[in-house]
Every structure is written in C-alpha cells, then in structure tokens.
Amino acid sequence: MMRHTLIKRELFGTNQCASSPCVNGNCINQGESYQCQCKNGYEGKNCDKMTVNPNYCKNQNWWASFDNKGWSTCNNDKLFITGFYRNTLGSWDKDEIYRLEEAKCCSSNSLYRNQQSECKNANWWDSLDRKNTWSLCPIGYFLNGLYRTGGNNLHNIEEGKCCKPVNHPKRYGHCYHEYIRYKFDKKGWTTCKKTGYYVVGVFRDHNKDWLHDIDYLKCCKMWT
Ligand SMILES: [Ca+2]
Ligand SMILES: [Ca+2]
Ligand SMILES: [Ca+2]
C-alpha cells in the first residue's frame, strides 16, 4: 500500500512533504502545496514558532547559575515562577541554597497573553535575614527570578525579580499560602499546587537559615 502510494506520487507529482517542512508537526501533502498540523505549543506555516499559550511552562535550568553570586531568572520576562525543584537535603544544619536547581516558569493567564512585562527588583536583603518573615514581590507582581550573593545560607538570597504583564493591575486575584515545611525538605518539585497560581514570595521559618527553612510560598492568581 505504502509502496504503491510512493510510486504514484513519483509519477503524478512531487511529494511536498518529502523534505519534512513541518518542524514540530505532521505534514499533509496537497498536490502543489502542503499543510502542517502543529503539535501543541507550536504555530506558523512550518510549526516552527513557539506559542506562548496560557498553558505554556518551561523548567528553567538553574543547576549552575544558582551556585554563584548573581541572578537566576526565567529566560523570558513574560514567564512567571510557579515552583522550584531542589536537590537532596544537605543536612538539617547545612543545606546550602545552591541545591535550588530549577524553576518552573509559566505564561500568564489568557487575559494577558503575549503582553510585554514590566519588572521590579524586590529588596529582600534584610527580610530573608529574619526569622518568621515574608519576602514578597510588590503587590501585583509575580516572581521571575532570584538574586543571591556569595554565601550559601538562606539569607544570601537578597532580591526577587518580580514582573507583571503591563496591563495587569497592582493587585492580585485570589491568593493563598502553600505550606511546604516538609515538602521542601526533600529532593523534588515544590510548587503552587493550585492551577493558575504563581509564586509572589517566600516565608522563612522560625528555625535555621538554610534552604529547607522556607516554610511557605505565597501563591496568587492574576487579576481577571
Ligand atoms: Ca546547583
Ligand atoms: Ca540578606
Ligand atoms: Ca522545612
């Protein structure tokens, strides 16, 4: 059957799909032309453009970047953090922040799709030095990255990069506190579990000064 079809095409016209023009999709031969059926997340004639659709998320690699002083962010201002991946607990008394290895970066909800972002750096230099204290983005902004200095304690996370779609107001939709006291002691993903929520801040516990001492994420929805 297959063989038959190929021979037929050779005789009666060229196979427009022969060069596999659909980068992320299936090709449909249409005589002189072709059409691509794109996989989810891609668009364009050849399915070569990535759609930043409301459900788009990417795990951003911070494995090396967060080992040293400097910024680790989502690779796009239009993406917002919904959670973190951490490596194995060092020990209760030495759980260095470089064990934070990845951030989950997700697009805005559909209302703000493809809008440019405006960003601000939130000053957490003192707030993360203190126990029982929240370190938060300015109201209406969502976390996009973290800045750390040279030491490896929790208090060495000094700033949050906080972004919002330009037309997003300086307020949030519904917010809640995701309790991660035990979850964040272990290797794996810790996220805002409810869908459509983004991280806007972290809470340092009453205990020590290590990565596992983040006890809560503040998770908020975008305003609709
Ligand atoms: Ca690392
Ligand atoms: Ca500090
Ligand atoms: Ca903990």
UniProtKB/TrEMBL annotation:
Keywords: Disulfide bond, EGF-like domain. Disulfide bonds join 17-27, 38-47. It comes from the Eukaryota. One of its GO terms (molecular function) is calcium ion binding. Gene3D superfamilies: Laminin. InterPro entries: EGF (IPR000742), EGF-like_Ca-bd_dom (IPR001881), EGF-type_Asp/Asn_hydroxyl_site (IPR000152). This is Neurogenic locus Notch -like. It comes from Paramuricea clavata (Red gorgonian). The lineage of its organism: Eukaryota, Metazoa, Cnidaria, Anthozoa, Octocorallia.
